[in-house]
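STRUCTURE:
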């Protein structure tokens, strides 16, 4: 039973919008009472007590940590709860993967709210390790630990009222669960039709105008700032007028950034811009608890004693984090003990050879028109590549049609133009790799490979030459999951991810250090990206336009069809 105690602090009330000195009485894990001292203004000599922060949309798997270990890092930064979509492990292991996340989460008092994955597999244009059906979702909803229908990425299916998609949404309504959205770029009447189907949130807005359209449609907008996608600057100025309908989220957070901060960093940045601190805290603390009906206290009498103590309302330096009346973090140190890690996976390992990544140049009779008497021979001009362009801090990509570099009848990377090879290799069954070309990674030598490849989590790799690509992919294969960087002269680093090929079995600080090392090697090889492995993981995410690569081929996310990499 948690100890009974009292705390004198400047208490923040997000319902009365007040900050005033008071004594907080905690007993049996709950707030027994809050007694004002009589003084009206905050006392500068006292710390501040406020509700804990909530990440309103995150894939815990992207931290490369199991839930219990994620919690050990998050509480240090004042996070007491997350709204967690387990569709990453769902794509690998199906419902068994969701059950795994629940088992790990139960090992700590942190307040995880997991969703029922709505789109496993995300599309029919890739090979996943499992499927989660409408019947599976109904069975998941019978578990009170499943709090919502996770992001409905099939927005075309919603707009066209696809029968299977609408059945999943109907089940969410039947069981009283909110439905999360995922509709990048959707605006105007389409955004309204999407919302009218029962979609309540969206975390994919990357412009103010898009966010406004979704707010007008009645959706809650999540301001996202993760390791790859960063939309804070584009959206934060919406807060003064729309704070009642906004939340903060990370979506995907790698361990090196999680050890440094979490939602507390967004709060700091928002307040530093001069935004009203009570409005900012409503976005960070109260709104997600109310929207998802989380069993998380909001610092009111009778609530669970889930709150944090900070030294100031500018730095938000977290002195203590409380969950159900227990101190779980203090002065930058997690007090949650490490928990045993169960290892589960779905991985078929096999060796790949460099020649499997070769791309023959089109020739007459091989997808290239034969010359006519009225045209010069086509071989006088190089073939055209459809090249993906990736962007730092964004999940969207662009498409460029560029002349190919051809050597000995093969289309090859052109490092001078930052045109590298991108490949996706099936990890569930032996199959030929899919190969395309990409700009934006900036590698000058070597290759990177990862078994974290949203959403089906096949092996995604980028490299300057076929030998490096094969070596990086084989390192991941041999470990049955991991992140690998390969450079010249035998440079190699691997971060093994034995849990579903997505998560480590190690403790958070060790994983963060290992990730920092492999990330540093990627940057030594030339990548200018802030998070090259996170960006790489999204190059197979077909539901984000415009051009992506799955294990089945190059996919045009706007036309929703496969296209040739070289024409």
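SEQUENCE:
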């Amino acid at each position: 039973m948690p100890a009974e105690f009292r705390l004198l602090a400047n208490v923040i009330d997000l319902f009365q919008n007040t900050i005033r000195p008071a004594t907080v009485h905690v007993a049996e894990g709950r707030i027994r009472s809050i007694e004002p001292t009589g003084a009206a203004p905050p006392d500068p000599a006292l710390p501040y007590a406020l509700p804990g922060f909530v990440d309103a949309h995150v894939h815990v798997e992207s931290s490369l940590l199991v839930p219990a270990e994620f919690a050990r890092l998050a509480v240090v930064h004042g996070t007491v709860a997350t709204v967690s979509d387990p569709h990453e492990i769902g794509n690998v292991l199906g419902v068994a993967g969701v059950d795994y996340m629940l088992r790990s989460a139960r090992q700590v008092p942190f307040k995880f709210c997991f969703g029922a994955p709505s789109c496993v597999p995300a599309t029919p244009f890739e090979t996943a390790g499992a499927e989660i059906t409408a019947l599976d979702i109904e069975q998941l909803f019978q578990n009170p630990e499943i709090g919502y229908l996770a992001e409905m990425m099939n927005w075309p299916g919603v707009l066209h009222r696809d029968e299977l998609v609408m059945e999943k949404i109907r089940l969410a309504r039947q069981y009283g669960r909110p439905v999360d959205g995922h509709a990048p770029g959707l605006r105007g009447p389409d955004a309204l039709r999407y919302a009218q189907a029962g979609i309540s949130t969206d975390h994919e807005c990357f412009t103010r105008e898009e966010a406004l359209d979704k707010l007008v449609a009645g959706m809650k907008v999540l301001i996202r700032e993760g390791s790859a996608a960063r939309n804070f600057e584009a959206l934060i100025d919406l807060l003064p007028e729309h704070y009642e309908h906004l939340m903060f989220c990370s979506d995907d957070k790698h361990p090196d950034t999680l050890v440094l901060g979490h939602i507390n960093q967004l709060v700091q940045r928002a307040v530093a811009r001069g935004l009203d601190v009570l409005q900012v805290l409503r976005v960070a603390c109260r709104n997600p608890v109310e929207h998802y009906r989380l069993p998380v206290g909001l610092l009111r009498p009778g609530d669970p004693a889930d709150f944090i103590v900070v030294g100031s309302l500018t730095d938000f330096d977290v002195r203590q984090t409380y969950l159900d009346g227990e101190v779980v973090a203090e002065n930058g140190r997690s007090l949650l003990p490490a928990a045993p890690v169960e290892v589960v996976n779905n991985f078929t390992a096999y060796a790949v050879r460099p020649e499997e990544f070769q791309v023959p140049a089109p020739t007459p009779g091989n997808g290239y028109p034969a010359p006519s008497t009225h045209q010069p021979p086509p071989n006088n001009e190089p073939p055209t590549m459809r090249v993906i362009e990736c962007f730092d801090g964004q999940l969207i990509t662009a498409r460029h049609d560029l002349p190919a570099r051809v050597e000995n009848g093969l289309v090859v990377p052109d490092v001078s133009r930052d045109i590298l090879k991108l490949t996706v290799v099936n990890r569930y069954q032996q199959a030929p790799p899919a190969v395309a070309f990409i700009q934006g990674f900036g590698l000058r030598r070597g290759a990177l490979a990862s078994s974290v490849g949203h959403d089906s989590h096949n092996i995604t790799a980028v490299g300057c030459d076929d030998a490096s690509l094969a070596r990086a992919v084989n390192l991941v294969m041999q470990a049955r999951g991991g992140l690998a960087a390969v450079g010249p002269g035998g440079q190699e680093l691997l971060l093994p991810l034995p849990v579903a090929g997505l998560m480590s079995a190690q403790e958070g600080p060790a994983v963060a250090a290992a990730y920092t090392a492999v990330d540093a090697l990627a940057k030594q090889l030339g990548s200018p990206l802030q998070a090259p492995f996170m960006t790489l993981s999204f190059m197979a995410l077909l539901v984000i336009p415009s051009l992506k690569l799955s294990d089945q081929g190059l996919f045009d996310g706007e036309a929703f069809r496969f296209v040739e990499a070289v024409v």
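REMARK: DSSP finds 16 helices and 30 strands in the chain.
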